[in-house]
């Protein structure tokens, strides 16, 4: 497991040093974070490039303080690029930009979401969000959307009585419409991914585990018949999802392969044909090897582009206008709570999706290793260092399941060091089982959070109708 000497490395232009040193770094350290900055932590006599690279590699996160000065400095851009290379997809959250002054960041950075710090009057709230982002584990508690949903439902009535509220909603109309569409995309892609994950766990893995006993044990046929029923049910659910407009430009044609797998499996069970059962499993494996990563890419991109911050801005405007206008504080309270909930929901969803994205990458490697493991351990020994590095992020918590996963990693290390192939196989299979359980649990959490996200989408759709 990778050990970091610091929680955060602050990448900034020295022209912005007064605010960075006296405000940002001071507040970070007061909140118990181990902060690395060049002026106090770079090693004397070492080349600047080497110091910068070491700072990025030894810090859990790099915090880029975006200003025109940062963008114009070759050194700070180098620090950002080194971090981006360590985490090219952003799944690990290694690079976290904060916007101190409006600027034009490079394209490789502008695709990442940042936290605005341009308004000093909102520093406390934005810093709280930053601390949660820096300190929160990848798998976070589910954020309940009910307070936001309740407040959003009041906006159509408020805009009837306050023209400024209506004007604000009209100004944000296009962005709100886009958000509603993106919410639908996130939920649709997550649903497809969940069905594929169930096919892996409830059908494919069980078929592979039981097929060898089919000839000698009649009860196995009943089990395989049950797996076929589960597969058919999933195929039917996927066909319903395929009718969603989200997939109009790219239909889920691979469902036909799963249909063939079901038909082959059902016929094979009836004939007690082990070879045909394996052929059915091969058809399922063909889908599982390619489609979950593709679906995950769409899920990741949709969540990153969600822009729930726009809804939070509308709610903040209504709250601030009501406060200045002397509106009843009791009526305004739901708006304030909704604003905070929307920010937490956006943040938590990104955390979960990024973690899910990294788990998907890890799962693809684990599947590839397991496919070759019975005949050749080269794939394990060759891929293990990179796989273990990714697992360091995913198993960094102090939970018992994370500790057990790290113990299995140590067992694989020992088996590889001893060149004991049988021990490698045993240790890796245990590792894979526990890793699959953690991935499945994350899947459930992300599915639940997407359900809460859907509750926000409903009143947003009503707002669009009211503005028509």
What does this protein look like?
The structure is a single chain. 73% of the residues lie in helices and 5% in strands. It has 468 residues and is mostly helical. It has a 5-stranded parallel beta sheet, sandwiched between helices. α3 (48-57) runs parallel beside α5 (74-86), α8 (146-161) crosses α15 (329-373) and α8 packs parallel to α18. It is flat, with a radius of gyration of 25 Å. Mean pLDDT is 85; it is low at 136-140.
List keywords for this structure.
5% strand; 468 residues; mainly alpha; 5-stranded parallel sheet; 5 strands; 73% helix
List the SSEs and their pairings.
Layout: E1 6-11, H1 17-30, E2 35-36, H2 38-41, H3 48-57, E3 59-66, H4 68-72, H5 74-86, E4 95-99, H6 107-110, E5 115-116, H7 123-135, H8 146-161, H9 163-171, H10 173-210, H11 219-242, H12 255-271, H13 274-304, H14 308-324, H15 329-373, H16 378-394, H17 400-418, H18 421-467
Parallel strand pairs: 1-2, 1-3, 3-4, 4-5
């Amino acid at each position: 497991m990778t050990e970091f000497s610091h929680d955060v490395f602050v990448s900034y232009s020295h022209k912005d040093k007064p605010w960075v040193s006296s405000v940002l770094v001071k507040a970070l350290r007061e909140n118990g974070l181990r902060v690395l900055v060049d002026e106090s932590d770079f090693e004397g006599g070492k080349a600047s490039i080497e110091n910068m690279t070491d700072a990025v590699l030894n810090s859990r996160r790099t915090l880029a303080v975006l200003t025109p000065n940062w963008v114009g400095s070759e050194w700070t851009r180098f620090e950002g690029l080194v971090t981006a290379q360590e985490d090219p997809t952003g799944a690990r959250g290694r690079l976290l930009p904060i916007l101190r002054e409006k600027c034009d960041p490079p394209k490789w950075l502008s695709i990442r979401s940042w936290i605005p710090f341009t308004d000093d009057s909102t520093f406390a709230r934005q810093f709280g969000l930053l601390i949660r982002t820096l300190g929160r584990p990848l798998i976070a508690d589910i954020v309940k959307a009910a307070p936001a949903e309740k407040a959003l439902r009041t906006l159509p009535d408020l805009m009837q009585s306050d023209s400024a509220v209506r004007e604000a909603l009209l100004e944000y109309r296009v962005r709100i419409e886009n958000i509603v569409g993106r919410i639908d995309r996130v939920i649709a892609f997550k649903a497809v991914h969940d069905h594929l994950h169930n096919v892996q766990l409830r059908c494919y893995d069980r078929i592979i585990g039981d097929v060898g006993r089919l000839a000698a044990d009649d009860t196995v046929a009943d089990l395989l018949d049950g797996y076929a029923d589960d597969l058919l049910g999933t195929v039917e659910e996927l066909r319903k999802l395929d009718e969603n407009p989200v997939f109009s430009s790219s239909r889920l044609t691979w469902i036909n392969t799963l249909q063939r797998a079901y038909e082959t499996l059902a016929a094979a069970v009836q004939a007690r044909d082990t070879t045909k059962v394996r052929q059915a499993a091969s058809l399922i494996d063909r889908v599982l090897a390619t489609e979950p990563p593709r679906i995950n890419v769409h899920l990741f991109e949709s969540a990153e582009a969600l822009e729930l911050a726009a809804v939070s801005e509308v709610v903040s405007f209504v709250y601030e206008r009501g406060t200045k206008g002397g509106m009843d504080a009791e009526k305004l309270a739901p708006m304030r709570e909704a604003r905070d909930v929307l920010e937490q929901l956006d943040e938590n969803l990104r955390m979960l999706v990024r973690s899910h994205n990294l788990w998907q990458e890890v799962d693809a490697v684990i599947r590839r290793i397991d496919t070759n493991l019975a005949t050749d351990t080269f794939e394990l020994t060759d891929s293990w260092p990179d796989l273990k590095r990714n697992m360091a992020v995913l198993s960094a918590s102090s939970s018992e399941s994370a500790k057990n996963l790290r113990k299995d990693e140590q067992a694989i290390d020992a088996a590889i060091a001893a060149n004991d192939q049988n021990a490698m196989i045993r240790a890796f299979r245990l590792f894979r089982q526990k890793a699959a359980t953690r991935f499945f649990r994350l899947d459930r959490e992300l599915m639940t959070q997407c359900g809460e996200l859907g509750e926000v989408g409903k009143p947003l759709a009503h707002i669009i109708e009211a503005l028509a």
